[in-house]
Amino acid sequence: MIWRNIASNFLTLAIVLLIAAAAAVAWAKREFSGPGPSAVAQCVQIAPGASLNAVSNQLAAQGAISNAYIFRAGADALGKSRELKFGSFLMPPGASMEEIVGAVTSGGASTCGTEVLIRVGVRENSVILRDMNPETGAYEDMARWNPAEGARPDEIAAAEELADVRLSLVMAEGVTSWQVVEALNAASFLTGEVAETPAEGSLAPDTYLLERGGDRNALLARMAERQAAILAEEWEARPFGMPYETPEEALIMASIVEKETGQAAERPQVASVFVNRLRQGMRLQTDPTVIYGVTGGQGILDRGLRRSELDTTTPYNTYRIDGLPPTPIANPGRAAINAALNPDETDYLFFVADGTGGHAFSRTLDEHNAAVARWREIEAQQGLPTDSPVQTDG
């Protein structure tokens, strides 16, 4: 009888323990898969060679997870305990342990933490050291350097050597190929000498993730491949009757449109003016092409055009030549390429600045002359030269 009672009690205890274990497992699964404790975004940083134990304790300490043991057990159950990838990964508020395990074992480019950003701009190139504020999800500038104005700051040089730093390049629409090469040459963490500047217009403005030790020429090839794909897509989808014989001619027009207006909504209108002028045999008469003929795309012309430059016949002086210049004058973005191939249907033949950053468009020379007169008044009020070139009926 005693042995029967002992066996009964043991069985009861075993059942209770099994139920408790099942309940504990169910709770742990809910903890692992359910919303995490952090009410703000978290930048989860994994050091090279870090162990799962160290990472789980780090995450618990920063409030990203509720239980380091459950995190380790869950990672092990998923077969990912040995798959940690170093880097910095931005996790949204309330991210579950399961989501965090997925992020830190999948790898890829860092999505938070420190970033060194190379910005290729129309007026200047710059290198910016930024750090993400995980609470806002926005990068905050820590240091900025213009390579044309002195030595690299120590803090930027140090950041470029960090194991998990995010390296990227942003190429603005309308920059020249020379400007891109200058920016790449200033990036000391890249390798390879650029022997020849890529053809104007052949590089796609975009954001590019970089790697320490990456080859400059390989990056330029990636930019060119992307631009070629964009141009091919837009050319294939073009409407019938456009005044271009080749995709390259469309690219030339796109570069002019890109340089003529900084307002995205105006691109199709600007393109319509130039397309209408081409169809009517009128000269394009656009300053950016003349400026490119003066600078060769190497820097900006920080002054007005001189009368002698406007009177000199060059392949890029569209006040003196018929049709398009021989090459693009910058690297246009997809929107400008699309506008060149899909201009608005208008009867505009002229445009001039209107003082707001945009342009006044006109159908007739009389309308245009009135718009020019208004622009001359604005120039005078702003103390600007009042003899800047404008389109005529030539």
Q: Give the overall shape.
A: elongated
Mean pLDDT across every amino acid position: 86
Distance between the termini: 118 Å
Low-confidence stretches: none
Site (Important for catalytic activity): 260
Protein name: Endolytic murein transglycosylase
Signal peptide: 1-28
Keywords: Cell inner membrane, Cell membrane, Cell wall biogenesis/degradation, Lyase, Membrane, Signal, Transmembrane, Transmembrane helix
How would you describe this structure to a colleague?
This is Endolytic murein transglycosylase. A hairpin with a 5-residue loop joins strand 8 and strand 9 (359-362). It contains 13 helices and 9 strands. The strands form 3 sheets. Strands 5-4-3-6-7 form a 5-stranded mixed beta sheet, with helices on one face. A two-stranded antiparallel sheet has the order 1-2. It is α+β, with helices and mostly antiparallel strands. The chain folds into 3 domains: 37-111, Endolytic murein transglycosylase (Dna Ligase, domain 1, 2-Layer Sandwich), CATH 3.30.1490; 114-230, no CATH class; 241-382, no CATH class.
